[in-house]
Amino acid sequence: MNPTLDTRLHDAVSRVRQHWRGTRLMDGLEPGVEGTRALLDVARIYRANRLEIGRMRPLLGRAVAGLFFDPSLRTHTSMEVATGRCGAHFVYLQGGEGTWKMEFDEGVVMNGQTAEHVKEAAPVLSSYADVLAVRAFPRSGNRDETVIRAFARYAGAPLINLESALAHPCQGLADMLTLDDLGGGGFKGRKVCLTWAPHPKPLPQAVPLSVVRAAILGGADLHVACPEGFDLDAEEMERVAGFAADTGARVTHTRDQAAATDGALAVYAKGWAANDRDHHSELAAQNQDWTVGERQMANATAFLHCLPVRRNVIVTDSVLDGPKSRVIPQAANREPVQAAVLLSWML
Ligand code: CP
Asked: Chain-centre distance of CA 82, in angstroms?
């Protein structure tokens, strides 16, 4: 045990707790501006000392249950690795396959395919694990948060949303850490571009909305570029705008991708569904020139994407394989921010 590192870790965690005593990380706004900054301080300590923390095992004896109703490469691996490095046990559960098919609606006569109600599953898992972590994409449309909200309602244990319809808070935290790194310790007042890019599927807005939340919490000069018919969710945008007054963030909405990318510290590309979801394919096909290439990156510092990314659809090979791409360190930042949340709840 390194007493200096142990003290630094405990001090950093206690600063998180001064600002955030909540036990739900649902959309990433819960820790607030100061709590988020404190969480990122814990993440930096973890990132710089992860092998030593792995030897210290500060969360020995604790357990995290990760329930995935949808596929994952980064989220699953980084959660399991962060949990293990902290000394806690991670249980991976595949929703609907390795577990009983779950029911979320109230008052259902369960004589069909579903065998277990979330009303039992969530408290039972909470009786074994100190933290639950759930990934559940929308079952229909873009705003369906039935699964994660049911867990929030019935789980006794602290809960991390590992991506739902409207939020991917761990991705947002990792993106903040990445933007902090790009900005040399912060990105307040720096231009950040979030641009829509073509994708064949009508994807939900969990990631782009989390990018907006991260940029606003960090005080960015955020430029959101998308073609007509692809505007971000107005209700969520209004909710997060409340934080801009505290951080000095500015948000500009534009159809002009060239103006939005010009001079940006980071160009963050993401595909999301057309507002007219039923005509997504045609509308996306009309905007193929929004694929991020050398032209869009000419006067920008870095390219970001949450991954997985479709090459030469969202972004060209030359950008993704080029020197401005920061997608690998961006993905690597998932582990320390998730460790920071676990440490803040369980240390
Ligand atoms: N970015 C992200 O959440 O990746 P996975 O879907 O692979 O977990």
From this structure: 15
Q: What is the DSSP string of 156-201?
A: SS-EEES--SS--HHHHHHHHHHHHHHTTS--TT-EEEEEE---SS
Beta strands in the chain (DSSP E): 24-25, 63-68, 89-94, 102-103, 116-117, 131-135, 159-161, 191-196, 221-225, 250-254, 266-270, 302-304
Residue 71 Cα to ligand 1 midpoint, Å, equals 8
- 0.90 surpassed by pTM: yes
| H helix count then E strand count, the chain | 16, 12
Ligand 1 atom at minimal distance to the Cα of residue 75? 8
Q: Of the candidates 337, 333, 334, 342, which has an alpha carbon nearest to the alpha carbon of residue 83?
A: 342
**72 CA to centre of ligand 1 in angstroms:** 5
With 80 as the cut, is the pLDDT of residue 1 above it?
Answer: no
Query: In terms of CATH architecture, what is 3-167+334-346?
Result: 3-Layer(aba) Sandwich (3.40)
- One-letter amino acid identity for 67? L
CATH 3.40.50.1370 fits 171-331, yes or no: yes
pLDDT per residue over 216-249, tens digit each?
A: 999 999 999 999 999 999 999 999 998 999 999 9
Provide φ and ψ at 154, rounded to 5°. Answer: -105, -10
Tokens of 132: 């639950």
C-alpha 310 – ligand 1 centre gap (Å): 13
Pocket of ligand 1 (CB under 6 A): 72-75, 163, 171, 306-308
- In the beta sheet, which residues pair with residue 194? 224, 268
Average pLDDT score, the chain: 97
User: Whose CA is closest to 193, among 122, 146, 142, 258?
Assistant: 258
Q: Do domains 3-167+334-346 and 171-331 have the same CATH topology?
A: yes
Residues for the chain: how many in total?
Answer: 347
Which one, of 117, 178, 185, lies nearest residue 305 by Cα? 178
If you compute the radius of gyration of the chain from its CA atoms, what whole number of angstroms results?
20
